[in-house]
Batch of 2 targets.
Target 1
Amino acid sequence: MPALAAFLRRHLGWLAVHPAAEDAATEIDALVQRSLRIARPRHDRRIPVGPCIANGCRGRLTAVARDPGSALPSAVECDADPTHTWPPERWRALYRNLPARPTGLSAREISTAWRIPAGTVHWLADEHQWRRSRDGRQVYYAQEDVLDTLGRDRLESRGRLERDSTSP
C-alpha cells in the first residue's frame, strides 16, 4: 500500500487528466472500502422496520444500531433514498407515522435474531406448526410459537428483537 500511495502521489497531475481517471478513482475507492471492511469489521445490528413513510417512496426502512465509536450514528435508513434517514431522537415520531403491520416475526427477523438460515426457519415453522399471517407476500409467524420453539432467552440476548403489537 505505501508503494501504491507513493506512485499515485507522484503521478497525480498526469492521472487526473487521463481519460480513465474517473474509472481509476472508482476502482481505488472500491478497493479502499473493501480494505476498510476487512481491517475494521463492523458489527452493526440491522432490524427491518417496514415501508418508507416518505411520500411516493417505495423503499424499505431498516433500523441500524451501530457500534459505539462508529464514525456514523445509529439511524433508521431507507434502502431506496439515502436522504430518507431518521436519527434516534426522531424515532418516536417516525414510529407514529408507520403504517400498521401484522403482528408476528418474519422469517428474516427470526433468521437474524437466532442466526439460523431462512430455510431452517421455514422448516421449523412447518415442523412445529407455527401460526402465521400474511401481509401481501410477506409471512409473519406468531411470536409466541417462535419463542416456544427457539427460546426466549436467546432472543433477548440478541438485541431484544422481541416486540408485540402494543409496544413502540
Note: The beta strands are 45-51, 60-65, 75-78, 85-86, 105-106, 132-135, 138-141.
Target 2
Amino acid sequence: MRKYVAEFMGTFMLVFLGTGTVVIAKGNALTIGLAFGLAITVSAYAFGGISGGQFNPAVTTAMLINHRIKSLDAIYYIVAQILGAVVASFFVRTFVSGLKLSATQLGQTDFPKISAGLAFIVETLITFLFITIILNVTSKEHGNSDFAGIVIGITLSFLIIFALNLTGGSLNPTRSIGPALFAGGGAFAHLWLYILAPEVGAILAAFFSKYLLGSEY
C-alpha cells in the first residue's frame, strides 16, 4: 500500500504545483517548465525510494514492458496516479474559485494552434524522449541513481518549455486527465490524444532503450 500512496503523492505534487503555477501564479514558459520539473525532482527524492517514483502512466507502461514492474502493481500504480491528479486538480479548482478566476482555466492541455495530427506527433515525440532518458538514467546497467531525479526534472522542464505553445506539454496522461475533468471543453474533447500519444511514446521508448541502448539486462 505504501507504494501506491507514494505514487498518489508524487502525481499530486506534479499536477498541483505545475498547474497551480499556470493559473494561480500565472507563470511564463520558463516558470511553468521549472515548476513541473522541480515538482517531479522533489517527488522523486521524497517518494521514489518507496515506489520507484514513476508518477506517470506512460512511465509505468514502459517499466512494465521492460519487466521493471509487475502487471498487478502497474494497474494499481496507474489508478493511484489518476487519483492523485484528480485530487490535485480539485484543490486547484477550489483555489481558483476562491480567487474569482475562471473555473474553466485550470492549466489544462489543448492544441488550439495546430492540428490534431501534429499535436499527436509532438506529444509522442516529447514523451519518447522523456521516457528514454528515464529508462537509461535509472538503468542498473549504465544509469546513475544518485542524480536520476535531477536529470529527469531538468529534462521534463526543457520539454515542457519547448512544447508549451504547441500542446501544453503534457507527456503524462494524468497531468491532462485531472484538469480536463474539471475544465471540460476542448481539453476534455481532446483528452484521448493526451492519453494515447504518451502511451505510444512510452512503448517506443521501452523498445528503443531495451534493444538499441541496452538499458535492461
Note: The mean pLDDT is 95.
